[in-house]
Design goal:
mainly alpha; five-stranded antiparallel beta sheet; four-stranded antiparallel beta sheet; 11 strands
């Protein structure tokens, strides 16, 4: 059959080349439309609950496709000016739905007290009722001592970290402005409703949030918009002496696509260059080196064209197909050229040389490609879409590169292989023969050494771990990731969050109350913040009415110097106490802020440079404004109709459902905290979703499905080997080095701490499918030649070259910026190398022992 195919190709080689060329041109057209999609969500089944919830949220809530813009600067005023001017200029952009860059002043000044918890409102009431600077400081000190100092409650200090830091920042500015007479209405508003802009406690980072009108599924549209936005903001930032950075799901998707595309182009190009150099070094014939590369490139182009027709996109797993297929597809050219050149060297013409290729090794090549493709195709039977797509794409890729080698390479050799060749002696050809003699001679010692090594490694073969920090597989140096970490550090929340969708306002309120009591939750963004239940509003309004009564009291026009100094010194002592308590709780941010406050000598400078006229002026301005705000505050129940559209649009979807966004208190990618956070959120409402939950589901799915794929691969390959070799003994011999390789890799991972992740975990079944080829080719040639040394003169050289080519191709992935590709490249390079070594040493030893081969 194969000999007839060879005769057909030799006879019709021009037709074969023409058809190959046409298929390549058509495939290139399809490749031009191929897109990259690096979302973890698309690796899970479409009916997965977390995916359904997230997709539903993307469809109904504009706020989910948010871009966070970070504004860095050494001067707070520069940051404020940028936040005041630039976000407004983006409102008319067609790609922008909404921008959130300031507090909603009108609503918060009128209704802000209703949004404060009853207990906190009671604590705040005496401060809001103050009529002088001295009274304001006294009630603030009373609150500090009652809440934190007297009880020495370090946990409470840590719990109220953001609140304390905000108050310390306010007090610092409050004291400075009081003594220079500049305290005014702006400061009263700031105290009442918080900072106007979202600026970090250390005043070095401001943020604003932009709602994108482009769906995250439109990766091209997202990329173009993010690039346009980034260029515009960078240009504007120079005018304000600040710098900007972007983060959020759309920005990270853009970054991942850009990085992975560059990585794919770099690794594929470098792989082809390395293959070409390897051929030149091995065969020392430039013409045949080029001929080997051409069908390989064609096969990859065909497979990528088919990928577009099947899926339309590449995901984070299939994005590596170029480097993978280069490393594996080149094997067929190596085996064909090795035999072809041997035949030419022995004096055969082109036609006879090609026919001998089909007679001697083509069956082994096809069997090897089947075993390799099985390693991929078994992924196609997985219930996990990420595996399924990967298996189909790479399985098709193996078939395409095989067909290109099977048809196109012989046709090319008919055109370019007729020229006589001057063969050069290559001393390296017989290196394996020299190695095999001691292996055969000392076969029992060789086998014993292998058993000891594998036994030592296998001690920790069950101690391997999975990486659950998504950030550790992302590319290093991404500005979006760096900003995300900076926001965690400076604002105590992250853009990585969880979401809950409720059908009714009441359900949203109930979930909000439960979430508010969770230790792992840092911030909650919910309509319930602005619209408490009627019962809670009534309780709060009772306190608010008492506060409003105090607003009638006139502002004190007198400054009592001694009492003021006493309260200032008391404040200093309380801040020192807070510093000690925060140190005990481990909250270094409060400790640093308190120490900074004391070290700045603001209080001592205030006392030493007391300006009564300025203090009186500030006192009148500030408390007149504060009392005016309180007097105008709403004292009636508010309903959904009273909430401004700018707030409602963030929480109410197109289908009138309500979304709650939960921001973790700490780094969500810390494994222990991650488990606690996700467990606590599930306890409130199991119907939640989010980046971390989707990522963890991908990890868990890969664990489960990966084991199944590994078992399916081993069984399928063994069946193919039985059919092909028609021998249980030799089928076992061919597979055994692969099983030993997997055991050794797991042991190495256990000893070194190298972890599996969502990308490299697919490597284990592939190592079996790829590595078993060496054994298949050796056994086929051995059964044909009946001589191990002759086998290794030809096939031994070929499998060495195929191993080097595969390792070089996978090794290029270690130069990628995307760390998921790096880990995959390392694991595959290690696995293929070990598979080769175990094939050479273990397989040969077994053949020598069971066939009683000896050397004199």
């Amino acid at each position: 059959m194969l000999e007839k195919l060879g005769k057909f190709i030799i006879k019709k080689y021009r037709l074969v080349l023409f058809v190959s060329f046409i298929i390549t041109i058509i495939s290139i057209f399809f490749i031009s439309k191929l897109k990259m999609n690096m979302q973890f969500m698309d690796l899970l089944p479409k009916n997965d609950n977390s995916v359904v919830i997230y997709k539903k949220a993307l469809k109904n809530f504009d706020s989910l496709d948010s871009i966070i813009v970070g504004v860095r600067g050494d001067n707070k005023e520069n940051i404020e000016n940028f936040l005041n001017d630039i976000p407004k200029t983006l409102k008319d952009w067609s790609e922008v739905k909404n921008i959130n860059y300031t507090q909603n002043d009108e609503f918060m000044l009128k209704n802000g007290l209703i949004t404060i918890k009853e207990k906190d409102l009671k604590d705040l009431a005496p401060i809001l009722s103050s009529s002088s600077i001295t009274e304001f400081l006294k009630t603030t000190n009373d609150n500090f001592e009652k809440t934190y100092i007297n009880s020495s409650d370090s946990e409470k200090v840590s719990e109220d970290s953001n609140k304390i830091i905000y108050l310390l920042n306010f007090l610092k500015d409050f004291l400075i402005k009081t003594n220079n007479g500049s305290l005014d209405t702006t400061d009263a508003k700031r105290f009442f409703r918080g900072d106007k802009y979202f600026i970090s406690p250390d005043n070095t980072l401001g943020i604003f949030i932009l709602k994108s009108a482009i769906s995250i599924d439109d990766i091209v549209g997202v990329t173009n918009f993010v690039n346009k936005l980034e260029d515009y903001l960078n240009t504007q930032a120079k005018k304000y002496n600040v710098s900007i950075a972007l983060t959020g799901s759309q920005v990270i998707s853009r970054d991942e696509m850009v990085v992975s595309t560059k990585d794919m182009n770099l690794t594929s190009t470098l792989s082809i260059i390395l293959m070409f150099l390897l051929f030149i070094i091995s065969f020392r014939l430039i013409r045949y080196s080029i001929l080997a590369i051409v069908p390989l490139v064609m096969g990859i182009i065909w497979s990528m064209g088919i990928t577009y027709l099947l899926f339309g996109t590449l995901n984070m797993l299939t994005a590596m197909m170029g480097a993978i297929l280069i490393g594996l597809g080149i094997d067929y050219s190596i085996h064909i050229l090795s035999v072809f050149l041997d035949e030419k060297k022995s004096g055969e013409n082109v036609e006879e040389s090609l026919l001998n290729v089909y007679k001697k090794i083509m069956k082994g090549i096809i069997t090897g490609s089947i075993t390799t493709s099985i390693g991929f195709i078994m992924f196609g039977f997985s219930k996990f879409p990420g595996f399924k797509e990967f298996g189909i794409v790479l399985g098709v890729g193996i078939i395409c590169t095989l067909l290109a080698a099977l048809f196109t390479l012989p046709a090319l050799l008919m055109v370019f292989g007729k020229k006589n060749i001057k063969f050069k002696n290559n001393k390296n050809i017989y290196i394996l023969e020299k190695l095999e003699k001691p292996i055969i001679k000392h076969k029992y010692i060789t086998l014993s050494v292998i058993i000891i090594i594998v036994a030592l490694l296998s001690i920790k073969s069950t101690k391997f771990e999975f990486e659950k920090d998504m950030m550790k597989i992302e590319a290093k140096g991404l500005k979006s990731i760096a900003l995300n970490k900076e926001i965690i550090k400076k604002f105590d929340f992250t853009s990585d969050n969880s979401i809950i969708i409720n059908k009714t306002l009441k359900e949203s309120e109930e979930d909000y109350e439960k979430l508010d009591n969770l230790d792992s939750v840092g911030e909650i963004s919910s309509i319930a913040q602005y619209l408490p239940s009627i019962e809670k509003q009534n309780k709060r309004l009772a306190i608010i009415k008492e506060i409003k009564k105090s607003a009638i009291k006139k502002v004190d026009n007198t400054i009592y110097k001694d009492e003021l100094i006493e309260e200032l010194e008391r404040l200093e002592n309380n801040i020192i106490e807070l510093s000690d308590l925060s140190y005990v709780s481990g909250d270094i941010k409060i400790t640093d802020k308190c120490d900074e406050f004391i070290d700045s000598n603001i209080i001592q400078d205030f006392i030493e440079n007391l300006n009564l006229d300025n203090i009186k002026k500030s006192q009148i301005n500030f408390f007149t404004s504060l009392k005016n705000i309180i007097s105008n505050h709403n004292e009636n129940i508010i309903t959904l109709k009273d909430i401004p559209d700018s707030i409602k649009n963030d929480f109410i979807g197109k289908n009138n459902e309500f979304i709650t966004t939960i921001y973790p208190k700490n780094d969500l990618w810390n494994e222990d905290f991650q488990k606690k956070f996700l467990t606590e959120i599930d306890s409130v409402n199991p119907n939640n979703s989010g980046t971390a939950k989707i990522f963890i589901k991908v990890v868990e799915a890969e664990k489960t499905e990966g084991k199944k794929v590994l078992i399916y691969t081993v069984i399928a390959i063994f069946i193919v080997l039985l059919i092909d070799l028609k021998s249980f003994k030799y089928a076992t011999f061919a597979l055994l080095p692969m099983l030993v390789t997997i055991l050794a890799i797991l042991g190495i991972m256990g000893w070194t701490g190298f972890k599996f992740d969502v990308v490299n975990v697919i490597g284990i079944p592939l190592i079996i499918g790829i590595g078993v080829d060496d054994g298949v080719h050796l056994i086929h040639r051995y059964l044909h030649e009946k001589d191990l040394l002759i086998t290794f003169r030809s096939t031994g050289k070929a499998i060495t070259l195929t191993t080097l080519s595969t390792v070089f191709a996978f090794g290029t992935l270690m130069l990628a910026k995307y760390r998921g590709f790096v880990g995959f490249g390392f694991l595959l390079s290690l696995g293929v190398t070990l598979a080769y070594l175990f094939t050479i040493f273990l397989l040969v030893s077994l053949i020598a022992i069971f066939n009683k081969i000896t050397l004199k």
